[in-house]
Amino acid sequence: MNFLEVKRLKSKGHSIRSIHRQTGVSRQSITRYLNHEQYPQKVIAQSKVSKALPFEDYLRKRWGQGETNHMQLWREIKEQGFTGSSQSVYRFVRKYPKDSSAENLPTPLTVKTWSARKVSLLMSKPFEDLDEATQNFLRAFYKRCPQANKASQLARKFKAMTDTLRKKHLDRWINMALESGINPRV
Fold this sequence. Notes:
The protein is mainly α. The chain has three domains: about 1-35; about 55-105; about 115-180, no CATH class. It has helices at about 1-10, 15-25, 25-35, 55-65, 70-80, 85-95, 115-125, 130-145, 145-165, 170-180. Helix 5 crosses helix 6 and helix 9 runs antiparallel to helix 10. The longest helix is centred in the last third of the chain and has 18 residues, at about 145-165. The chain is flat and about 70 Å long.
């Protein structure tokens, strides 16, 4: 583990620069590790959900009735228990069309969150066996992360090779993996 190695090298008198050269750990991480007795827990960023979300049905109804003033909408939902600011209401309703007709309002956003484990399992399955929504997700994912696309291709080739017990292709696959540019430490 890098944390323990950093601590060990520092206890032997190595400088931060020397530890960086030996371990490949960034100097910022080394400094952070040295400031902690135990490995620092990873902070997971929480996505912010608007406080106005529970009031969306009411806001959509009032917008459809012609009330497009965010301050007035804020006052109305504040009476219903809303604790957020008028600016949060403004940010929430600014996506609504200015003509205020209810049929033109955007549909409420639904966000599907998948775990890293599920995504890695999907990446190893044959693309054509996946449903259309999953294929669309993977297309967007691969577009934003080309290395994930390479990793997926390598994983599928490795699986095909091991399924058919083609040991003679292992060296060629290893060379493809090494030339892919994917960092093995990630």
